[in-house]
Design goal:
Layout: E1 6-10, H1 14-26, E2 30-34, H2 37-47, E3 51-54, H3 63-71, E4 78-82, H4 87-95, E5 100-103, H5 108-122, E6 136-138, E7 141-144, E8 149-152, E9 155-156, H6 161-172, E10 178-179, H7 180-187, H8 197-210, E11 220-223, E12 227-230
Parallel strand pairs: 1-2, 1-3, 3-4, 4-5
Antiparallel strand pairs: 6-7, 7-8, 8-9, 10-12, 11-12
Helix pairs in contact: 2-3, 4-8, 6-8
């Protein structure tokens, strides 16, 4: 799976950048290095990497800003690699469209394993039950799996790959209640197990993008003490 896969490494520390480069090349990856935000954005457009390793503390444009810019045009997996290890930083990074958060100092073996897992998952063919062209319509919400697009009031909504997959899974199983752990196992790799912030942040982002009033969501409901469900009732007959 790693053959001919390209990883963009964004870190202003030459030693860490070189360490990541050597570790990845030993596993057969191609690598591209960037040391600033501007270099990272140019490299992302020019090389179209299969995954981005992104430091947070960079001169000028920080990693969170870079992630936001990349997410405007690409669903490439983004793994933050940072010495910022607070929960708020992880929540922010995941909320902006990041797929994982690895703290420094890190184990090169674990980092490589995560890189492979994310690239493998991103390149997996759809499961048989997901190979459908049926468009799902709920009130003012349209989900088109074949075109990988979402419309609200006929206006396109930009979602990350994880956000789209989470929404699609919930919408295909309306009114079924899912625990956080179930959504983890369905949509994230094993490295995320136990990090409940991951699902919470993606649900929060979906509500901001889909709901007229995210504080009182119509589509994605919280079942207190249990998890989440997708409500398929029209707004005028909703609970």
């Amino acid at each position: 799976m790693s053959f001919n896969k390209t990883v963009l490494i964004v870190d202003d520390d030459p030693e860490i950048n070189e360490l990541l480069t050597m570790s990845l090349k030993r596993e057969g990856f191609h690598t591209v290095s960037a040391y600033t935000g501007a270099e990272a954005l140019r490299a992302a457009q020019q090389h179209l990497p299969d995954l981005v390793l992104l430091d947070v503390l960079l001169p000028g444009m920080d990693g969170f800003q870079i992630c936001s810019e990349i997410r405007k045009t690409s669903n490439v997996p983004i793994l933050f690699v940072s010495c910022k290890d607070e929960a708020t930083d992880k929540v922010l990074g995941l909320g902006l469209g990041g797929d994982d958060f690895i703290s420094k100092p890190f184990s090169p073996i674990e980092l490589i394993a995560r890189v492979k897992a994310h690239i493998r998952r991103n390149n997996m063919p759809p499961k048989p039950e997901e190979q459908i062209d049926e468009t799902l319509v709920f009130d003012n919400l349209l989900i088109d799996p074949a075109a990988h697009r979402v419309l609200v009031d006929n206006k396109p909504i930009a979602l990350s790959a994880k956000e789209f997959n989470l929404l699609l899974h919930l919408a295909k199983n309306p009114n079924r209640v899912y625990k956080n752990e179930q959504l983890f196992s369905l949509l994230w790799d094993d490295f995320h197990m136990g990090d409940t912030h991951t699902v919470m942040v993606h649900i929060y982002n979906l509500r901001k993008k889909l709901e007229k009033n995210p504080a009182k969501p119509h589509y994605i409901r919280t079942i207190r003490g249990v998890g989440y469900k997708f409500n398929d009732k029209p707004a005028e007959t909703a609970e």
